[in-house]
Input
Amino acid sequence: MKPPPLWIGRLEIETPTVLAPMAGLTDLPFRLLCARHRCGLVMTEVVNAQGVTRASAQTMYYLEASPDERPVGAQLYGADPEVMAEAARCIQELGRFDLIDINCGCPVPKIITKGAGVALMKQPEKIGEMIRAIKSAVDLPVTAKTRIGLSPGEVNISEVAHAIEEGGAEMLAIHARFASHKHSGPADWDALAQIKSERSIPIIGNGGVDCAADADAMRAATGVDGIMVGRAAIGNPWVFEEIAAMWEGRPFEPPTLEDRRDMIEEHLMTLIAHFDKKNEYRRRKKNTTEESACHHFRTHLLKYLRGHPGIGSLMKRLEGIHTVTDVMSAVDEVLWPERHTEPLAAHQT
Ligand SMILES: Cc1cc2nc3c(=O)[nH]c(=O)nc-3n(C[C@H](O)[C@H](O)[C@H](O)COP(=O)(O)O)c2cc1C
Output
């Protein structure tokens, strides 16, 4: 059965699915595809609050957004409530975003050594202070994303979720793994169910949802108000359509090979246009825009083609793929091997 719309403050999300923020992946071109394929809410990758306040070129590139992807959230990391509030004010001023999300879950050393990301979970009261500071600076809804704890020996998600709600946040997304487990291992759905039962703000469940059946199972087992999908959406923006179709009781038409090819081409061409913007920000350019975009696209490409028999050969010659023509002929060879007389291995450089 279709879940009710998700309300984040006054923001209504009709289909309660969320694209997880993923550094290096959830840029504007990818978010646009997910939004078009029924993702209810998309998120930027995490951006440095200090970079926002300085309007650093790289940070502003991460904050490129489009009306066609809305609703879209901007995720910030930082340790200083005042800097976070100032960054949120700058983001609101851009007029492109629908909410501000605070990263309280990232375990990478670059972030935790600054006392930000998941390090904030050690100080629930500071998270509350941060939310209050941001809320007094902006009208946009404020949300947070956490882990279930730092490690199995440091489980304080109840306390953290309490501080987040008391601070005035309008939604909490929980990645149901410990920070010490990074992104591997099973997600702890019991922890999601517990926090959902303890809190009144919407709780979004995240971790290990690979398909529509997983999304439904997580909702049924935990009662969460929405589902956040990360890695399963890479190379498969259709996963959101699959979830929406299941909830609406409609059959889901899986993409054909032609649909897949079209999506890959569109994604890559949009990425090249997006990289043109990046080049405006970059002073030194080692590669052409097309080369940089094709290199960046490799992660997506392999995921779009996962499961096809030619993928192994493609992986071996990935380093030799630099242009749109290279990418698309590799795609054609993997999707329609029978049309290509030469074996893929013959192209290896
Ligand atoms: C490559 C990568 C980058 C990520 N970057 C971020 C990030 O910028 N901000 C964040 O809150 N979480 C980040 N995450 C965590 C995801 O948002 C998500 O919580 C995690 O992948 C678990 O969801 P999944 O099992 O559906 O992939 C990242 C994960 C991956 C794999």
Residues 257-281 form the longest helix (25 residues). The beta strands are 6-8, 11-13, 17-19, 42-48, 72-77, 99-104, 142-149, 171-178, 203-206, 226-229. The radius of gyration is 21 Å.
